[in-house]
């Protein structure tokens, strides 16, 4: 299939093919969550979480409390950097820091966001391995996974493609809506993550 | 000195509001969650400025203008962290005051405050000469590196406070007892 046939295939989706894909994926995720599939798959996943505790990460996490706490600290720092990049970039989109060049802010903040997200996910996987069976039974852990999925899809399939365009040509209310949504999504990811610790 | 700190902590512990916060599941957790989530506003933005100075991020964004513009939201974040931090201390005053990690954290906070003051002073003195350079002058880069390193340690110490490895009610070495400020015969922990 050549590139022209690919682009002609996407014309039916209008100018936002990746957005449409993201919406479809979100729909599929909601169907998965609230349909019968989730409850039928859930018991099968227990063996995966039990296996996670037997990995080297799981062993270290359970045996050395200091190592676990250290990684928690790294998780928090990277969460802070991720949140800082989101607030800075979305703040700029909302009209704050208006003397700073919008393109450089968005592109520069996105690189920081991607780096921080990688560290957040890597340290998060380590932490889950240490308490895998415990979090398996926590509803808030699954809420966090859902919001994290939504956040990643939103960042890479909605926000990024939209902002890669000439921002001056995008409806300002769409830009503001994307910025507010982005802040809310990542705040929810962080808040549900914090609530895991209280559960 | 440790006796005085202990006496003040016990006095705070005896107040009704301290007990109320400590025993309220939702209020305590809301305060703690706010304290942690404000990291995104305070530390996240501070690290953006530090990384810009070191040439690790946002190389095309004018450096001093970035620092000036982000100063206000960052300070708002630190004020919220400060207030919620005081409330967290007030909720569990004796254990917090005798936490080795809490004490290290407080010392590092003072070091970071001094570093931030010197950083800001140097930045205003050298204004605009390097505004569009990808890296700040070496003195500012040093300050940014100290800020990144020490704030990371502060967050880790904050995380360590939750663990009871060096609590006074366990048998500790003389060094740990001295550093944590444990009092012989103390009845409140």
Can you characterise this structure?
Chain A contains nine helices and no strands. Chain A has 199 residues and is mostly helical. Chain A has one domain. In chain A, helix 4 crosses helix 6 and helix 5 runs antiparallel to helix 6. Chain B has 189 residues and is mainly α. The relative contact order of chain B is 0.15. Chain B has one domain. The two termini of chain B are 17 Å apart. The interface between A and B is large, with 39 and 37 residues.
Assess the beta-strand content of chain A as a share of residues. Answer: under 5%
Mean pLDDT of chain B: 91
Tell me the β content of chain B: under 5%
Order of helices and strands of chain B: HHHHHHHHH
How far from one another are the termini of chain A?
51 Å
Estimated radius of gyration of chain A: 19 Å
Structural class of chain A: mainly alpha
Number of helices of chain B: 9
Residue stretches of chain B low in confidence (pLDDT < 50, at least 5 long) are: none
Find the structural class of chain B using helix and strand composition. mainly alpha
Helix proportion range of chain A? over 70%
Give the overall pLDDT of chain A as a whole number: 88
The tally of strands of chain A reads 0
Sum up the overall morphology of chain B in one term.
elongated
């Amino acid at each position: 299939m050549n590139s022209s046939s690919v682009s002609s295939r996407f014309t039916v989706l209008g100018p936002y093919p990746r957005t449409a894909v993201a919406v479809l994926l979100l729909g599929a995720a909601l169907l998965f969550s609230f349909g019968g599939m989730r409850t039928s798959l859930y018991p099968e996943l227990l063996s995966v979480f039990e296996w996670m505790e037997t990995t080297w990460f799981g062993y270290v996490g359970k045996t050395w409390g200091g190592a676990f706490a250290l990684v928690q600290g790294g998780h928090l720092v990277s969460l802070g950097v991720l949140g800082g990049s989101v607030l800075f970039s979305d703040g700029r989109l909302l009209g704050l820091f208006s003397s700073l060049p919008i393109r450089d802010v968005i592109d520069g903040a996105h690189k920081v966001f991607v780096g921080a997200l990688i560290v957040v996910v890597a340290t998060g996987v380590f932490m889950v391995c240490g308490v895998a069976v415990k979090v398996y039974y926590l509803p808030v852990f699954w809420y966090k996974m859902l919001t994290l999925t939504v956040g990643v899809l939103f960042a890479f399939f909605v926000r990024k493609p939209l902002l890669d365009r000439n921002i001056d040509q995008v409806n300002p209310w769409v830009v503001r809506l994307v910025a507010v949504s982005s802040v809310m999504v990542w705040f929810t990811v962080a808040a549900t993550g914090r609530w895991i610790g209280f559960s | 000195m440790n006796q005085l700190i202990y006496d003040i902590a016990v006095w705070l512990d005896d107040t009704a509001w301290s007990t109320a916060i400590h025993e309220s599941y939702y209020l305590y957790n809301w305060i703690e969650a706010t304290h942690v989530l404000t990291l995104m506003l305070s530390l996240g933005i501070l690290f953006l400025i530090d990384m810009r100075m070191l040439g690790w991020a946002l190389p095309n964004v004018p450096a001093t203008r970035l620092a000036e513009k982000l100063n206000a939201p960052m300070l708002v974040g630190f004020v919220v962290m400060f207030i919620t931090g005081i409330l967290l201390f007030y909720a569990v005053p004796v254990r917090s005051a005798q936490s080795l990690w809490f004490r290290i954290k407080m010392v590092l906070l003072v070091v970071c405050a001094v570093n931030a003051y010197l950083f800001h002073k140097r930045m205003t003195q050298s204004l605009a000469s390097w505004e569009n350079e990808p890296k700040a002058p070496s003195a500012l880069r040093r300050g940014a590196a100290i800020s990144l390193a020490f704030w990371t340690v502060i967050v880790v110490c904050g995380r360590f406070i939750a663990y009871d490895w060096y609590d006074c009610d366990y048998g500790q070495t003389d060094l740990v007892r001295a550093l944590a400020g444990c009092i012989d015969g103390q009845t409140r922990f």
